[in-house]
């Protein structure tokens, strides 16, 4: 029996325009994803992070809210985006992953592919979709997580789906959710050995996929009747948590160089920052001798309680939006420089910048520090899919004005 074929170099992830949504609660349902895909201002669509079997979501402990980063005042205690004030540019969440399993997302993608195939092509010279139909070349990034063996299985399922749909697919492995314990003290991306374990599993999955397709060595597989079919290799990315010192960047990039050739095409930076806490006034405890474990006191003795429920009961979760933006910029810059300094990775791994972007200026800042594309999360929840038009029209407006000078 022939040994498994060596995996080919990872294909690049092309996002045009370089603007997309991040994996978040507003990319959970088919309606969410179809609306994002239909927008002419998204260059790719990312699904909410899923597991092979779905996450056991509990409304009592898996919540989110928007809040003002200056006053710390939540816009709403009911997690209703429609009640969000203009000043509530930050978010806090105690969410886990999507309650929908990976196979459900693959069925959503099949449905979107059928709709795109049935509609008139909708590309123009700028890569933006028009009003006549759905683009067929817009990538869908399927965000997944689980054990190394689980994500290898996820890759196989996504690869098989990619062979049947009209649009390119990619896979993002979320190694950074701060709200999941799973028996481990830190998100996997903080642990070099854990990252290496995922990379080994992913490289093996890619090699097995190529071998299963009977790759002929030129990116095409030969079928029994002599007809050639393109072998499917899906771009893979890793989603990272915020890194806070130089050693974290060095360890992460060292993990990537421990497994060469790398199976990775992109890194999404960053996920939310935890442990973060938003407090709201609480009614006075009627029994001061038995204080509520979920309240704390300020120097003025005002009783406060967490704005959100959480699995721990402490109400801490991941912060995103405007307060995260400077840290996200620093992470994108740090990663692009660290990746560029590693000869084996230089020019091979794109960074997708995520964190606090809600306008053209934020997009430009991300691009200015090296992001190949820019993702939007909290602003999508606050402002809806129209935020992408707002951002891209701002980008184009500045470019048009500059061309006239």
Automatic annotation (TrEMBL):
Pfam families in the cross-refs: DHO_dh
Keywords of this entry: Flavoprotein, FMN, Oxidoreductase, Pyrimidine biosynthesis
GO annotation, biological process: 'de novo' pyrimidine nucleobase biosynthetic process; pyrimidine nucleotide biosynthetic process
Gene Ontology terms, MF aspect: dihydroorotate dehydrogenase activity
The protein's annotated pathway: Pyrimidine metabolism; UMP biosynthesis via de novo pathway
Cellular component GO terms, alphabetical: cytoplasm
Sequence ranges assigned to domain Dihydroorotate dehydrogenase catalytic in this UniProt record: 314-396
Region annotation Disordered: where it falls in the sequence: 67-86, 282-304
Compositionally biased residues, Low complexity: 290-304
Signal peptide: none
Cofactor(s) needed for function: FMN
UniProt-listed Gene3D superfamilies: Aldolase class I (3.20.20.70), Dihydroorotate Dehydrogenase A, chain A, domain 2 (2.30.26.10)
Keyword Oxidoreductase tagged: yes
Protein's name in the database: Dihydroorotate dehydrogenase
